[in-house]
């Protein structure tokens, strides 16, 4: 795509050097849009609570190879202008033209290109790469560039707070401005004196943890004000701060409070009306540890906590005990994470300007205070060729193009504060990264946690950063190095040599990584040579972001550096609904491993049914590891995630947004080991998450369980033998309700019969053809439940046991009162509760109708909506002795929502219809916008339904 020339081209008042551009994807005289087949689509998004339409734009234009999901996200998130007006964007062409036009024009005006022809090539290559999903800029670029809004291009910010009230209040204000723009920020509060120190007036200081409350409330308020994403922030405290123990335990104490309030019946779901009473929930917390401290932990020695005003040691702690408290708090609530201060600053390119003290919310951007970084991520799977090789040349060229564009963006960008603008323009920090690594490794037959997989990832990362800094040196020769380079030239060049030395130490395993590494070695040699001559245009070049929304925009299977989440994916379909299919990387990997087509089909069908590869027909056990995922039957071990991070960290300017997932059974000592190994392996930052460690989640409900019911019942009389329950049979004629339902695309019927005078006594379920296994299981289940009801088992007991039970099929239903169900059983017993249990009992179980929920939101008493239904008005003759043979007669439910459109699955083996909410992390929150279950993306979450994220990028 590009190369630098020593010649010049005349522009303006004199001659200058400029970049000469090379066509790689495009053809002279042909616009890239003309080589794509475009089609019109309708984008309609509905509210998961009541089915109402909350977004509608018809006739939007996208390439025919873009998925429905990607088109929906771009239309709803990135198209500008009021819907329904002529100003509204309606084509991907308009969006890309708006953004790329500013980049090309700014490059021309500021001497980046040798000739106008080179500017046109840059314009065409950039447009081609974007519409073909080869890479994407971060979200603020799509939000703001080319609009009347400030041209904010950065997603990541780092602020600074001094030990004065004026500085603390300015921090609140600056964070608010950043959150308003849809970005995230981080800050280190260690300059604020501790609660153990005196103020100049003689009083005792409040300490940083106290001031965190105000910032947390501010973030929560702005988040609820309708921004495009939840406020994302990071708070860091140094390990030698006297208040570090209070900081460590802050969120764990709040998690205990959440449990207590939940058990008392308060709504502590994420987004619930009572969760706002709990503090510190809007930030990620991290402790910044030094090598001195970590060595003290290893030795079991003491460690001094220092006054922030004098620097003197004012108390000592047991280093190992403090480390245990850190791990215990993370075990309880996933906070705090850990940042390795000396490692971060050892790789710092501008130490003469200042130390690195903090990071952005996801910990991948680590650089100077009061600075920002714009991100862009490459879709790695786009470089995997049909023969299974990695297209090294195209990867080099696309990296050059992206770095050039990202640097141009700093030239025209606007910033939320003057301090940030000054630092960013002086140091020009960039954050190129990638997505789809997990899919690339699987498709090429590499296990994620293996020397081969780690070598491929390391080689690609080294090549990306080597090309980025080589291009930065070329840009420095054309438009000059960054303003702060002169005072930091030696340390910057030292870090470049460290990267190159790490590349020399990289040990390759196979042909693929060896080829990439060979090119990386050449690029680092050119980088050092050009840097010595020209300096560098950018103080930072690369990092690995979570790639949440933009990963969906590029139709990536995996985000950032993450492995695949699961072997089964959900594909959204035109007209609504979604299809569950085995990941297309799976058959690609099987073919790469040498399996014949018949074997591939059999294995794919097995995976579709079971969700994993264990005991798949014909699959060799030594190949199981290739299909290991972040979750499921064969989940990657926690240290496998750490080893992958360690493999790529030496080749990144910044750090890595990634959470190390641990099973619920993990111990505090397991987390201590992860934190210790992260330090030994040279990571810059690390965060952990233990399954189910947080209770303030959307699916956590306060319910009355069997123990509580038993505690309220009177004690039985002391008798020699407890009386046996007797069966109360239903009469030959009894009232009944027949309900047709659809859960995640699976349809069925339920007939519920009741005693004429008192309560439910029989349930019949039908979900498949007579004689099938599923039909037999449902018949048997129906008989068991019916006999239990007739022997006096209370319905609420069944409801408490089966509600929230999780298995496939799951997802969206056609019932307006129950829009989402975790399984068919979850739906059935919620429906039975709504039909047969009184309001007070349903409240205790957390089950309300749509009308009752709406009344609550209006501040009305839902109990006033209750009406007594006379079961005698619904008559049906059912023979209790022939449950297994009787056929249901559908009695349509009044006011039922229209059933969603369902589409028959393709003929591909193993495809089934199912909602795309299933098979995601159990603890992932529901999307605040559309209600879809979110999925992990780095240390954040992303909604596959509408693209909303819980963090940066």
UniProtKB/TrEMBL annotation:
Catalytic EC class: oxidoreductase
Cofactors required: adenosylcob(III)alamin
TSCPD domain mapped to chain residues: 731-835
Gene Ontology biological process terms in this record: DNA biosynthetic process
Occurrences of domain Ribonucleotide reductase large subunit C-terminal (ranges): 154-689
Keywords: Cobalamin, Cobalt, Disulfide bond, DNA synthesis, Nucleotide-binding, Oxidoreductase
Transmembrane segments: none
Compositionally biased tracts (Low complexity): 712-723
Catalytic reaction(s) noted: a 2'-deoxyribonucleoside 5'-diphosphate + [thioredoxin]-disulfide + H2O = a ribonucleoside 5'-diphosphate + [thioredoxin]-dithiol
Pfam families in the cross-refs: Ribonuc_red_2_N, Ribonuc_red_lgC, TSCPD
First and last residue of the signal peptide: none
GO molecular function: cobalamin binding; cobalt ion binding; nucleotide binding; ribonucleoside-diphosphate reductase activity, thioredoxin disulfide as acceptor
CDD domains: RNR_II_dimer
Residues covered by region (Disordered): 1-20, 712-741, 881-919
Residue intervals of the Ribonucleotide reductase class II vitamin B12-dependent N-terminal domain: 43-133
E.C. code: 1.17.4.1
Classification via InterPro entries: RdRp_reductase_class-2, RNR_2_N, RNR_lg_C, RNR_NrdJ/NrdZ, TSCPD_dom
SUPFAM superfamilies given in the database record: PFL-like glycyl radical enzymes (SSF51998)
Similarity comment: Belongs to the ribonucleoside diphosphate reductase class-2 family.
Functional note: Catalyzes the reduction of ribonucleotides to deoxyribonucleotides. May function to provide a pool of deoxyribonucleotide precursors for DNA repair during oxygen limitation and/or for immediate growth after restoration of oxygen.
Name of the protein in its database record: Vitamin B12-dependent ribonucleotide reductase
The species this protein was found in: Bailinhaonella thermotolerans
